[in-house]
Design brief:
alpha+beta, Rossmann fold, Tumour Suppressor Smad4, 17 strands
């Protein structure tokens, strides 16, 4: 009851802050000045967003002129506001509105348990764990954290990936034949995915050691990414999770498979050493002059000509259109599909600002998806590794395919942040029950889909 009362007062505080922000502008600036204020800000924002699109899609002088507009546009708006003595109004308005949004989200928030939404269960500790470690991964984390020594001291057999052309799949298969009852990897997500597929095939648990560079899979499992040695605690004091796996062709992926712009950039030899520079250099071609035209078919709908498609093992957060954030669960039984189709500066501005995403962004949660192209093969980034696959490319979800052993004590996965639903906030502020109470939202079934 106390928690419900605090949520109601937070909802009321949200509306109070929003009303105060609007009244401040109308009272101090006046109605006519307020309209001029909004119009000036809108024009400056539109110019900056359009220039950002030109910066990404052109080279040479046009790129740098567009970059100058991106910088100058907000400065011009700020100068105009300052000459009208309205800078303080804008600052106070921003603070009030930020406070209102924070209070609204807090009112709808789910109390955090620190353990995510994927339930764990007790199992016996492995008797013959087998760990594959890449000494070069993550800038040498295997050596820096003495992972091989610590794992052997806990009874694990360790294979170090040293020397050229090591067949990781054959090593894992051989370990299973020799009686291994757990497979684990200290390395990048691409190697994690390969061995995870073999563990799932044989029904043995899988252990993730966060020794890669980005460790996205470890992040979504709630593991400690700062100290990979902590992941070894699962060998002696661990629990198991049952999660889904993605399948693209005959390959497993744990995070995502990307097509179009992102896949083209990842396949560049220069990408690993200079990600930002390589991206800026290649974006004009892959966005505006791509040699291949993609076609996405999902849930009976066909999207023609998307510049980028991201298929993920479970959906990313709704506002994450690049797959750079996190997934708050890995057991919902659906793929997340994001397709970006930008036809010009207006679409780009709407996509960046979030106000016109319906025109350029397709979002689906589904069990399977097909990506085709007007070419016999397409580049694909699978968990950050560049490959080429024959078209059409089929992706599907394997619900509950993988058992993952994790430490009992770990950072965990926080609940997803609530979306700011003004209708629910209004009902909460008035003291009535919201139609969808916090924490009661379920994952959408495989057949469900939505477009944003």
């Amino acid at each position: 009851m106390l928690e419900s009362r605090s949520h109601r007062w937070l909802a009321r505080l949200c509306f109070l802050g929003a009303a105060a922000a609007v009244l401040l502008v109308l009272t101090v600036a006046g109605v006519a000045a307020s309209l001029l204020l909004v119009l000036t800000a809108a024009i400056g924002t539109a110019a900056g967003l359009a220039a950002a699109w030109w910066f990404l899609t052109h080279r040479g002088l046009l790129r740098w002129l567009a970059g100058a507009v991106v910088v100058v546009a907000p400065l011009v708006v700020a100068v105009l506001f300052a000459r009208a003595n309205l800078i303080w109004v804008v600052l106070v308005f921003g603070l009030l509105w930020a406070a209102a949004v924070a209070a609204g989200k807090r009112a709808l928030a789910v109390p955090s348990t620190g353990d995510g939404v994927t339930s764990s269960f007790e199992t016996a500790a492995p008797l013959r764990p087998y760990l594959i470690m890449n000494p070069r991964s993550g800038g040498g984390k295997v050596e820096r954290y003495r992972l091989a020594e610590r794992a052997r001291a806990l009874g694990a057999q360790v294979f170090l990936l040293e020397g050229p052309a090591v067949d990781v799949a054959e090593i894992a298969q051989r370990a299973i034949r020799d009686g291994a009852d757990l497979l684990g990897v200290a390395g990048g997500d691409g190697t994690q995915a390969l061995v995870a597929g073999i563990a799932a095939e044989h029904g043995v648990p899988f252990l993730v050691i966060s020794a890669g560079t980005r460790n996205h899979f470890a992040l979504d499992l709630g593991l400690d990414r700062e100290n990979p040695a902590a992941c070894l605690d699962a060998l002696t004091d661990g629990v198991e999770l049952t999660i889904d796996l993605g399948l693209i062709g005959d390959r497993t992926f744990v995070n995502n498979a990307s097509f179009g712009a992102y896949a083209e950039i990842v396949r560049s030899p220069a990408y690993r050493d200079d990600k930002i520079g390589t991206t800026l250099e290649l974006l004009p071609r892959v966005l505006a002059d791509s040699d291949q035209r993609l076609e996405l078919t999902v849930d009976g709908t066909t999207v023609t000509g998307p510049q980028a498609v991201l298929v993920s093992n479970n959906p990313y957060a709704a506002d994450d259109i690049a797959g750079l954030g996190r997934r708050h669960r890995l057991d919902s039984g659906v793929l997340g599909v994001l397709a970006v189709t930008v036809r010009g500066a207006a679409d780009a501005a709407g996509l960046i600002s979030g106000k016109g995403r319906a025109r350029s962004l397709t979002v689906r949660n589904t069990g399977r998806v097909v990506i085709d192209a007007d070419a016999p093969a397409v580049p694909v980034g699978i968990d950050g590794e560049a490959v080429t696959m024959p078209t059409p490319v089929r992706c599907e979800i394997r619900p509950g395919a993988l058992r993952v052993r994790v430490p009992r004590h770990r950072p965990g996965v926080p609940p997803p942040p609530p979306e700011l639903d003004w209708s629910r906030l209004r009902r909460l502020a008035l003291g009535s029950s919201p139609s969808s109470a916090p924490g009661e939202e379920k994952a959408r079934p495989a057949a469900a889909s939505s477009a944003v």
